[in-house]
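INTERNAL AUDIT FORM
Audit reference: QA-55
Scope: verify that the stored structure record matches its stored sequence.
Auditor: D.O.
Record contents follow.
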Amino acid sequence: MARIGKYVIDSLTRSMYEDSRCIYREYIQNAADQIDLAREQHLEENDYYEVHVRIFRNQRRIEIEDTATGVSAGNRDTLKDVATSQKRRGQHKGFRGIGRLGGLGYCSTLTFETSYKGEEVKTLMHWDAAKMNRIVDDELDESEAGNVIDDCTSFEEQPEVADKHYFKVIMENVTDDRLLDVNNIRDYLSMVSPVDYPTQFGVFASQIKRYVQQNGITLDTYNIYVGDEHSEEQIYKSYTTKIKDARNIKDKDRNGEYDIKGIKIFDKRNSDGTLIYWGWYSISELPGQIPSYNVAYGIRLRCKNIQVGDERTCRNFFLAEGDKRFAQYFFGELHVETNQLMPDARRDYLRECEYRSTFESLVRQDFLVLKDLCNEASGIRGNIKAITENDRKIKDIEKKRETGSFLSETEIQKSNEDYERFKKNKEKAQQQLERKKQETEQNGSPLGFIYGTLPTPEPTLPTASAIPTGTADGDTQYPTVVADGATDPAPDEQQPKLRTDNVLYKKFGVKEKNVINAVYNAIYNAIADEDMREGLIKKIEKELTK
């Protein structure tokens, strides 16, 4: 018979997971399967069962307890078995029988405490993890895996109330500080665990549940509580209707966040109508990647409503490296439904099989839509920005015309050219925005009800274009803005043209003004920075007009 060396224990414990927090997922996954069994047996009249995660940071102790079936005293030896699970693949959430070993890599002692309904005894199985690690690390020790397990485990029994039924995992002297951070673990489990959508996700949660019900999909959820020695709170998925985004912190209307306007549900079926997968993703203005300080970001791959991989796993459904970022413009879920696919041993991804390539090809097609939406939203935002920016520049020129703050004929000439250019740019952006709005409505884009209903900004200019006219001042022409149909203003109502036409300069004659204009013109040509130029002009103006 083949020998199984002791190093397999190391592979299943200390070397199993890149993220130590995965042990929480494994124990909750086992608890969920036992709760399913308890529901089938109607172990409790109300079929209400719970999972409690308690973290005692100061004692460096973790407890994970469920109120499901527990393990009978007669079957206690199964707690030592490795990879001998009787769970059915495709039906249970776990099926390999290795997850319970996960905690051994992160504590000195691992205890399983359990009681079975109807028995007046509870069983405690102790794993001496520190001893196990010493044996595994001893290169001179040639023990087989089974012998190591027997040598490092022990049982005891204690009295218990007959109606009690539970299974508790106890980790003592936890070595990884990350496992003892209650808030971090709460956030992690809210996205990884099979829990319900929060009430604050409102109508979107109802939309998902309605789709699930109408399509006969099973979406198991469990009552999971996370806390410390003082208090616990039930966790839900961390989806919200607002995204925190520090990039918008200066925008008073956004206040450092933006809204989720809706969700889009998608699915794919075989030719016989069998569901392969389904999912949903958030719809917003898509201003950029959702910052990672939001608990919910990225589209998550899930199987049996438990996360597979992490928040970056679905990025790989974009083939081009530069496109992977688009997965993080959204949050959402991709649920695997076909029994032809199942998670790998570490639950990092799906196990290699022939059908996996078909699945990936189908998902990539759906994810191309995400890329298109991001590009579509970017184009629309670009048009809106162009309209706003050009409108601002137009108003700046109009203000200058009203206040007569031009420094030279050259500036007047340039402002007239800029005025026409900004006006054309704004009109072009308005036309493009209107066209894109119509396209979103016609092609049924999810962005249609966000951008398609935006009013096209009204022109801020007169219906007829402003017409520069001239009045003579010696040999110099100064343009005046007059709308079509308007009467010529009286001389005393005419707006100043150059800065020297302001009342501040009334004490100067024409020749003196020409000299001042020449100085201002030189400054205009020499200093490109408008703020710096204006600061210098104001100092000169103050001295000249005091």
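Auditor finding: record pair retrieved intact. The first strand starts at residue 50 and ends at 56.
Action required: none
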